Structure prediction request, 160 residues.
Amino acid sequence: MGKINSRLKGKTGGPLIHGDRGGAKRNTGGLYAVWRTMKSRCYNKNHISYHTYKNVKVCSKWINNYVLFKEWALKNGYKKGLYIDRINNNSGYNSKNCRWVTPAESSRNKRNLKLNARAVKKIRSEYVPYKITYTFLAEKYNVSKGHIRDICQLRRWKNV
Prediction:
């Protein structure tokens, strides 16, 4: 139960999943795609993001068991359109370090992120029209003037 039989590929290329709600079920998107892509980023040298993820590991429970990954995902808020996100980017994919987030939330949890919630609050508190300009803040925080404007006008980081 729960094992992928790679010999059962159909004409569309997606493997059949056994043990997932009874018999074999074609699964080429959704949660299965999240699981497959997570593993590919970490272990497939030909994946476009491999160089970023090559030192990230997928836990032993999930690496070869889609059903266990799926059970965790459904118990922990997975909905179509959400991204799997590592809370601590210095740690791997496992049940204690992963969560489901919107694309906007995911983009804020990156190693190369220039701003965080604290900085956004500070920008908003520092901005004074005609005294402290967008240009001054953009230079101070090393982001574009448009980015500062959007933060101050609540077009970006709306929930902060």
About this structure: Residues 30-43 form the longest helix (14 residues). The two ends are 45 Å apart (CA to CA). Residues 127 and 133 are 7 Å apart (CA to CA).
